Amino acid sequence: MENAKEEIVMEDRPSDIFDRLRAGGPIRLNDPEYFKISEVVNKTIILSQQLNNSTDTHQIRQCLSKILGSDVEESTTVFIPFYTNFGRFTKIGKNVFINHACSFLDMGGITIEDEVLIGPRVNLVTEHHPLEPTDRRALVTKPIHIKRNAWIGAGATILPGVTIGENSVVAAGAVVSKDVPDHVVVAGIPAKIIKSIP
């Protein structure tokens, strides 16, 4: 009976490396499926060159759709250069604006809801590493979620596991390490609430 219980637990455990990435467990370079991550990264590097050589917003949407593996809405505008190391785990809603030189490290998953504004040089980082020096090369991920009508100011950095609330504003240059509630402005390093939005 105990063995049967163990088998059920093993069957429920995500086995594909992409499922395990999204689940947030450590992924190490010697993982037998690590090559799958490398394959996606290599394709993304090639597609990113095409993206960043685009000559109009329609072409940018087409190239970015290939990187993301899903269509970017016509109402959404992305300015180049745009950087991502993976791309497959980013979801972008309708009427989103993403300004120049943004960087999305999305192996943990990035969700950007409708009407979001993202300023230039914004970094969305879903990936980090263990503090233990002997395991430092392992990859640990946590998702970022930016809710409807949020505005991320120029040069802000959103760290792994953070949700930005609906209608909230992240001031330019802020580093956000904790969830931001709806209808507030946050600023500073680390970011703190400085005012409410009526």
Model description:
The chain is α/β, with parallel strands linked by helices and 198 residues long. The protein is built from four helices and 18 strands. The protein is globular and about 50 Å long.
* Helical content (DSSP H or I, runs of 4+): 10-25%
* Count, helices: 4
Radius of gyration: 18 Å
Content of β-strand = 15-25%
The end-to-end distance, rounded to whole angstroms, is 58 Å
User: Major sheet, described briefly?
Assistant: 7 strands, mixed
Structural class: alpha/beta
Keywords:
198 residues, disordered N terminus
Summary, kept brief:
This protein is α/β, with parallel strands linked by helices and 198 residues long.
What's the SSE blueprint?
Layout: H1 2-12, H2 17-23, H3 34-51, H4 57-68, E1 77-78, E2 82-84, E3 90-92, E4 97-98, E5 102-105, E6 110-112, E7 117-118, E8 123-125, E9 127-128, E10 140-141, E11 144-146, E12 151-152, E13 157-158, E14 163-164, E15 169-170, E16 175-176, E17 184-187, E18 192-196
Parallel strand pairs: 1-4, 2-5, 3-6, 4-7, 5-8, 6-11, 7-12, 8-13, 11-14, 12-15, 13-16, 15-17
Antiparallel strand pairs: 9-10, 17-18
Helix pairs in contact: 3-4
